[in-house]
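Slide 14.
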Amino acid sequence: MRSFLFTVVHWWLSILLLGASLPGVALAEVNDDDKAQAIVHMLDYVGVDYPESVQNGQVIKPEEYAEQRDFAAQALTLLGQLPAVSEQDVLVQQARELLTQIEAKASGEVISTLANQLLVHIINSWKLSVAPRQAPDLRRGETLFLQYCAACHGMQGRGDGPLAKGMDPAPRNFHDEARMRQRSLYGLYNTITLGVRGTPMRAFGELSEADRWALAFFAAGLRTEPRMVTKGEELWRQEQSKADFYTLRTFVMTTPAQQAVAGSSLDAVRAYLTQQPHALEAGAHSPLNVSRMKVEEAAVAYANGQQADARRLAVAAYLEGVELIESALNNVDAPLRAEIEREMMALRTAIAEGASADAVTAQTTKITALLDRAAERLSSSTLSPNTAFVSSLVILLREGLESILIISTIVAFVVRTGRRDALPYIHLGWIGAMALGVVTWILARYMLSISGANRELTEGLTALLAAAMLLYVGWWLHSRSNAQAWNRYIREQLNSALATRTLWTMAGLSFLVVYRELFEMILFYETLWSQAGPTGHSAVMWGIAIAAMLLVLIGGMILRYSVRLPIGPFFTVASILLAVMAVIFVGNGIAALQAAGVLDVTDVRFFSLPLLGIHPTMQSLVPQALILALIAGGIWSNREKAD
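Slide 15: predicted structure.
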């Protein structure tokens, strides 16, 4: 008796190896994707059927064992005919190992594992399409099943349709739990696509790709009991198992047996997602899932020798995923957020430095585990009103204090010099920043989603511009910190306003430092507002109100006591403050540009203190050291002039 599986593979082999043809298709016209798909099809059947033909090292079904050995041999032959890729020699060796183990009558578990691993590597290496472009429509799948399949497979898919009598082999019974647990949705899709020549099971090439996926999902779900689907839905809504089923591709490529033992919670979730795949499609677009996908794609691209693509994907994994939930994760587990960011930087460094493919893969595995932890922390955490209040208070205090210090210093300066006519320029700067901040919030809230890349670029460039202005104003103040220089300056400016260039520099600085902090606060508060929920919104507002009052008090005290300071000490303290802020801004600005992928990352052994702009990378520490040297040189130069 010729088996159902042997027939379909030999049909394709007759096309690919012996030159037999489909209607209107010659061997020369068979493309490489078809060859690769044929290999995947054979390996899928080896993984499913071999365990039934060999047990405990003994062949119990000689005919099927011979078929599996033949499939493995033909897969090895076809693998050598595919277009060359960097890892092809390794995959050919794996195919030889599979054939050797089959000939040695290895256990079914060993053969299934080898076949499935090789199958996945082939799909990744030749970039085969293995997932639906969108969630399949099961209502369409049911219509197609009744139209094309029920006559043989039966209305319930038990293989007992009116035309099934006398068929050899019998139509598939989709309620056969043991066999269906070994079958992936991709395997079912392949069977529908390729058909089985020599039997009534034909290829359904006239159906669209979407229709074939709909049929595969519908057939796979026929054996599912309603109570299992209900249980799976509850687990899915509780955020359980989302790390195991985060993309349609992962879902269709994995067999139930590969993922969990029978009767586990994963079986229930799989049952639900098979009948409601739109839920999986929606979950695939969550930021952490985007990060997982991009990280995996980066590892595959790097293994294929595509270093530039791998780096681009590694950057996107952070910007299009983690960056979007960074503030939310910071509220519940700041150390985990920092660890994820650090390991993602390490991945990009490994790619840039040409590390081994195994090292890059190991790094992506580590990141994936961290992302799973992050998903668990975010899903299990609900901010209490107290936590929401404290978070709201700290955000505004932390982001507003820098602006208050700088603006208060500038205001105190113009008041001390008696040049109150300069105050409108300063006020114009921060009021303009507030107005633009409101516009930014409206756009971010209602019109567009600020991408991670745009956010980091905005923060980075704004910080560097602000640092340059801080250095200029700090040098300007320090140059007048001694009595002789100050008296000379007063004589020069006695009957005139401050230099126009200096006025506009102060206005620009006032604008930049306020807008930069507002930009961050908008994104942080958007996340905090959604995390706090309706019960925590009042706590967030109270946090903002109290933080605002504290900032007004702090600003007033700084302004009051700075005005009373003697001229020399005041200018000295102010210039030092602005210089320190410039160093902090440079460090954080470069870190933001590194996160956006604009600058490379070279790690060095140094402590990390982001609050002070200290990041252990060569690209940030060197400019900060140069700025410190520049500041020291400026101080020395001013003293020389004073002497």
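Speaker note: Residues 3 and 169 are 6 Å apart (CA to CA).
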